[in-house]
Here is the input.
Amino acid sequence: MNIQIDFRSDLPIVNQIVEQIQHLLSAGKLKPNDQLPTVRALAQNLRVNFNTVARAYRILDEVGVISTQQGRGTFILEQPPPETSEHLRREALQAMARRYLVEAKRLGFSREQSLHIFQATEDEETTETNHRTTGE
Here is the structure.
């Protein structure tokens, strides 16, 4: 499981962990019944406080993404209901949007400039995709 923490981000570390696990799940990189690292192991790996990871796992447990079984470990639950999956996908997208805007602001861009660059990049990507699919 590849989780990267940005210690310079305005987004709390707990939220970064939750969002990245949700993203890995929605992207299919984590599947039902996959075992997550122990709280202690993930905390050591990320070089964060044990309680930070424990809080992230608790949040994921409360929304029905994971289940911790005493003595066995922490596992991704079976496929969540469609409304939960959609909620997780939407939260992951909102988190990416927040990170984009925070980083753009950190670089000195206004909200309007950031949105303009985003739209221009999207237009370029659409053009490139069309060229790839039509073979031009």
